[in-house]
Amino acid sequence: MKLDVTTLDGSAAGTIDLDETIFGLEPRVDLIHRYVRWQLAKRQAGTHKSLGRAEIARTGKKLYRQKGTGNARHGAARAPQFRGGGKAFGPVVRDHAHDLPKKVRALALRHALSAKAKDGAIVVLDKASVAAPKTKALKETFGKLGFVSALVIDGAELETNFRLAARNIPNIDVLPVQGINVYDILRRDKLVLTKAAIDALEARFK
């Protein structure tokens, strides 16, 4: 697969061949869905908690005698049916993460990249660097290139000025190639890859 390479000022910088085994697959929705579900579950804090009847600061004395009152049989006022009592089967602190094999994760990432390539939503940049960390200038540059909602993936290290200029632009995410993930790829309309990012991805999947 051949794509044009562009620079940040919009001029052409040649072409690049993308590896078909990474960018040319027929996207499988089931794999992508499994990865996104795994990723979102993994980042849940799981700190939700409600008080059970054993944790309520309330007397455990029997409300009234067992027989002879005509009322229902009740024990402590901490029971869930009473206002101020403990919650029955409430949420507890737990880990929401579940396992996903490493090979499935790698395959899902390739299918997500292929899905973007199939939609024509991949843009290849020569390099992601700017002379000064000016957000306004970079926002105007992105506007000319049509980057309204985009994920920019650079090489192993982000160029400092570019990272600082881009961090406050709405709907623009910038990540090093190690941080590339399926969820961030799908949540933005455009996937912007630098030549360094493509080289790193191809080396990673060889």
TrEMBL record:
Species assigned in the record: Chelatococcus asaccharovorans
GO cellular component, one term: ribosome
HAMAP family per record: Ribosomal_uL4_B
InterPro entries, per database record: Ribosomal_uL4 (IPR002136), Ribosomal_uL4-like (IPR013005), Ribosomal_uL4_dom_sf (IPR023574)
Name by which UniProt lists this protein: Large ribosomal subunit protein uL4
Family stated for the protein in its record: Belongs to the universal ribosomal protein uL4 family.
UniProt keyword list: Ribonucleoprotein, Ribosomal protein, RNA-binding, rRNA-binding
Annotated transmembrane regions: none
GO biological process per UniProt: translation
Subunit architecture: Part of the 50S ribosomal subunit.
GO molecular function: rRNA binding; structural constituent of ribosome
Domain of life: Bacteria
Gene name per UniProt: rplD
A Pfam family annotated for this UniProt entry: Ribosomal_L4
Purpose of the protein: One of the primary rRNA binding proteins, this protein initially binds near the 5'-end of the 23S rRNA. It is important during the early stages of 50S assembly. It makes multiple contacts with different domains of the 23S rRNA in the assembled 50S subunit and ribosome. Forms part of the polypeptide exit tunnel.
